[in-house]
Design goal:
mainly alpha; DNAb Helicase, Chain A; 75% helix; DNA_helicase_N/primase_C
């Protein structure tokens, strides 16, 4: 399963481009890491691809496939490479996909920060009201 939704589509686009044009790897690694890939099979593919291209920026598809751990991963890599080759237009697809990933990462960070603030506020309020409501409280915090 290659995932559903905008994030998964952007992840697939990045891998498709890198498998066909590894020369874009320098740009990609400045903006994202394999940790940005949250679809399991795409995360495995990204790990193999980033590892391979870090060692040899001009690595061929055969070299990437040689590092694939299992048949399903190899099949995924071949499928992504074929789909990407059919689409072409690598630079604009890569730029769009990287923008999507970065926007989603920023949104996750904002959502996480908001959740932490809400939790902190809730716990502070609970602590204040617990001391007031409990007549047996000796005021220890």
């Amino acid at each position: 399963d290659l995932g559903q939704g905008l994030a998964a589509a952007a992840q697939r686009e990045i891998l498709e481009v890198l498998l066909n044009q590894p020369s874009f790897f320098e740009l990609v690694k400045q903006k994202i890491t394999p940790a940005a890939f949250d679809v399991p099979i795409l995360a495995k593919t990204a790990n193999v691809l980033f590892e391979t291209l870090s060692g040899d920026p001009d690595a061929s598809l055969k070299q990437v496939l040689a590092k694939a751990e299992d048949v399903s991963l190899g099949s995924c890599i071949v499928e992504l490479a074929q789909v990407g080759a059919g689409k072409g237009n690598f630079e604009s697809r890569l730029t769009g996909a990287l923008d999507v990933i970065q926007r989603l990462q920023q949104r996750k960070k904002i959502d996480k920060d908001a959740a932490v603030k809400a939790q902190t506020r809730f716990l502070r309020d609970v602590r204040k009201t617990a001391a007031k409501q409990n007549p047996h409280s000796i005021g220890m915090t």
